[in-house]
Write a structure and sequence with these properties.
Blueprint (H helix, E strand, L loop, with lengths): L1 H31 L16 E4 L4 E4 L43 E4 L14 H15 L5 E6 L4 H12 L6 E6 L3 H10 L3 E7 L2 H7 L4 H17 L3 E7 L6 H19 L3 E7 L16 H10 L8 E5 L6 H10 L4 E4 L13 H12 L8 H14 L16 E2 L2 H9 L9 H5 L4 E2 L6 H12 L12 H15 L8 H15 L5
Parallel strand pairs: 3-4, 3-10, 4-5, 5-6, 6-7, 7-8, 8-9, 9-10, 11-12
Antiparallel strand pairs: 1-2
Helix pairs in contact: 2-3, 2-11, 6-7, 12-14, 14-15, 15-16
Amino acid sequence: MPIIKGFIWPFLLQNIRLTLAVLLYTIIQTKNAYKIKGNGDKLMEQRKVFINPQNNLLQLEEPIYKLVEVDQPNTFRNLFPYDEIPKIAFNDRIVPHNFPDEIFITDTTFRDGQQSRAPYTTEQIVTIYDYLHRLGGPKGIIRQCEFFLYSKKDRDAVYKCMEKGYKFPEITSWIRASKKDFELVKEIGMKETGILVSCSDYHIFYKMKMTRRKAMEHYLNIVRECLDTGIAARCHLEDITRSDIHGFVIPLCYELMKLSKEYNLPVKIRACDTMGYGVNFPGAVIPRSVQGIIYGLISHAGVPSKWLEWHGHNDFYKAVVNSTTAWLYGAAAVNCSLFGIGERTGNTPLEAMVFEYAQLKGSLDGMDTTVITELAQYYEKEIGYKLPSRTPFVGQNFNVTRAGIHADGLLKNEEIYNIFDTEKFLNRPVRVAISNTSGLAGIAHWINSYFNLKDKAVDKNDPLVVKVKEWVDKEYEEGRVTVITDEEILSQISKVKKELGIDTW
């Protein structure tokens, strides 16, 4: 018995100690459960409860996220393995729509748009600026244009655009987060400037060779200097879709909002999807979730919608849909470039967001969309930039059909195969290109469209149409593989009209 007791007592003692340890751990965890993640945030019971004016429901005050300093960069290798295709993960956390009262477009044609092509001349910049002013309409839906300041040519363009005296688009600048660059802003007399604020660990650790804390201090010092001179700041959060949203981005933006209150000046936030990793799928995880990023910046960092902007790239074909998503979930502005011209695969096309705006708001709000066609013609004829033929709204083949069955539908009712009244909104009547698939209907539509024969339209059984169709068929029977040009069709119509004795139109 003593032997048994000697054996059991240590065993029982060990179990008692283990039980007490588990109990103590449970108590601690239960206590901590009332805390919100974020390095010592307020206790649950200390967070305010208030009415959400958007849905009239009681809401708990959002936690305050503090900077998370790390020894090694968080590159999210689970999502971005460089030797594999990036991954899209889900946690099914859904955030609500938060469509702002006012949405608008900002332009980066003269900044990001110039980084991927031959620089514009001063005269070209001023001309395009004039076009953007007309396109944006009296309400200034195209709210701002940003400019480089580094070359004399760019500074001259800024001065000439300022001389126009337009209220919209407002003229802003873009600089690196350096005091030397900021001197250029002060010299020109800008009211607002963009500042490059790289926010992923890829940039902080590998490019800038800093820690998160040093990077934050660096950015806050530059922004403070900007505000000290009475100039509003716009912080471009570079590479946000690979950044630690809760560990760096939100704490940084929270501090920026505090600076804004201190100086009573705007500190705007541009969320930059620099590599095009953003996705708009409900329930996708941050940092790739557009909805999640926008929600976090508004709800956790306190960024007002009117100061929040999305800047997208098109590496994964998502620039347009991600920009629209940013609008829907709370960003008032989307940053665009004409025809999507920008780094690598380009930026969000400005013309696309003009029509996204109209679809969401139910109105163009005074925007003159015919200017889009004028701009496309200016780029091709004066600048020498060839737009891909199938580009929506501006490409040569945007509203051109070759299929005979489509042409037949257009003859019966244009609405069947045209997305909207393209003649009204873009000064581009629907067209038919003549090929081996055009058929009689295609040729009839081409004639009616080219000669504007609204009241005297020919149908597909007209002798003129039949004769031209016979010639087209012969061309392709003999081995032709190209589309028939307008000049060739006109020449053939002229011959057939003489044969048939037609002297009208």
